[in-house]
Write a structure and sequence with these properties.
- This protein is α+β, with helices and mostly antiparallel strands.
- It has three helices and seven strands.
- The chain starts with a strand and ends in a 16-residue tail after the last helix.
Amino acid sequence: MKFRKTKGWKYQLTEPYQCQIRPFYAGDIETEFVQLDRTGALHLKRYYAWDGASGPCPDVKSIMIASLVHDALYQLMRQDLIDRSSRIYADRELKRFCILNGMPRFWANIVYWGVRVFAKKGVYPFKENVEYEY
């Protein structure tokens, strides 16, 4: 995975990134920067931006891909493309990708429980993105 630091969002992909997540959604989704198919193939296009790890968790190597995948899945929930009840699957993928990228299981469990307890609001649209009609 290749990325750069940016202003605004913390990171931006400088080339496409793709991975396989555990399938949990029965359809195919395509947005400007994210594609997810029913087999769990996740494709993130060049210039996709995300904010890395949240809270007190530092942006260490073992969490960068995990935070990228997790943020993309939460974004799809914010956009109402995936049901918000799927949050637990996204959180489990965060933990799995942390472990796959070298994070000790103990710390991956702490990261997992951190998002389970504190990240629920992340699947709802950001207030500044809410559209109003009069």
